[in-house]
Amino acid sequence: MTLIAEGLSVTLGGRRVLQDLSFRAERGELLIVVGPNGAGKTTLLKAVACLIAHQGRLDWDGQPVTSLSAGQKAKMMAYLPQGHVAHWPLKARDVVTMGRAPFASSFSRLSRADCNAIDQAIDAVGAAEFICRPITELSGGERARIMLARALAVGAPLLLADEPVTSLDPAHQLGVMNILSGEAKAGRLIIAVSHDLMLAARYADRILVLSQGKCAALGAPGQTLTADVLRRIFEVEPLELSANGVSLEIPWQPVAPKG
Fold it and tell me: How many Å from the N-terminal Cα to the C-terminal Cα in the chain?
């Protein structure tokens, strides 16, 4: 899976949310998108997922997304949105099973490949102990893991994840990021949105910094999350940390107001 965006722009409610954004991402990569509130992070994921209209070029594996059928898109891309609201008391396993919908006909039963994909996704997120409970009875963190399992069950070469660690405790945040990193190393292209700059710095192969709908920086964590970027884009003073021979700039306190 190769994703190419050139001059990608999105207008919502008369406001230009994304402006002439260009980048390329490949299989085997975990690309994490960061930026202040309102920078256009979720809008970017929705545009790549073809959930909102866009201008500019957007290709998946050399094919314009506009040329792909809904069925082709469903098999090539899995999308994990923000929030994990559940209105119906479906069993958690049934929710994960929905990830295999692109491969099923209206009257077909689950194939062996479907069952294997579902079981592997459940194991990957560590959800076996509550997989038979109604999703409405799960905690926010448990629901988050089930929704991630549903996205993983698709087996798509492109996974888009919007704030996948929201509502998770630190141990499960690290667990989810390990999963996403592992899926990238296994050959998928993972694009994730995150507000946690420390997790982004630790796990991303590359980071895309958005500011006011434009690319402010794109590259390895050490090239993008610099002291200048933290001050100028995120309006925070950085603190430099070093661990295992790696130095990182992390947010420490708000930039003092001028004057």
Answer: 50
Residue 209 · residue 215 · CB < 8 Å? yes
| For residue 256, pLDDT beyond 90 | no
- Distance, in Å, from the CA atom of 47 to the CA atom of 208, rounded to the nearest integer, reads 15
Going by pLDDT thresholds of 50, 70 and 90, the confidence category of residue 172 is confident
Comparing C-alpha atoms, which of 144, 161, 151 is closest to residue 120?
A: 151
Q: What gap in Å lies between CA 251 and CA 119, rounded to an integer? A: 39
Tokens 């926010």 -> residue: 140
* Close Cβ partners of 17 (under 8 Å, ≥ 6 residues apart): 10, 11, 40, 43, 213
Confirm whether pTM is higher than 0.90: yes
Closest-CA residue to 33 (of 221, 225, 228, 194): 194
CA distances from 179 to 57, 123, 172, 241 (A): 30, 11, 10, 25
Fold of the domain built from segment(s) 2-88+157-225: Rossmann fold (3.40.50)
> What is the 3-state secondary structure of 178-236?
HHHHHHHHCCCEEEEECCCHHHHHHHCCEEEEEECCEEEEEECHHHHCCHHHHHHCCCE
8 A C-beta contact, residue 135 and residue 86: yes
Query: 68-80: per-residue pLDDT in tens?
Result: 999 999 999 999 9
Task: Provide CB contacts within 8 A for 193, sequence distance 6+.
Answer: 32, 33, 34, 41, 42, 44, 45, 161, 162, 163
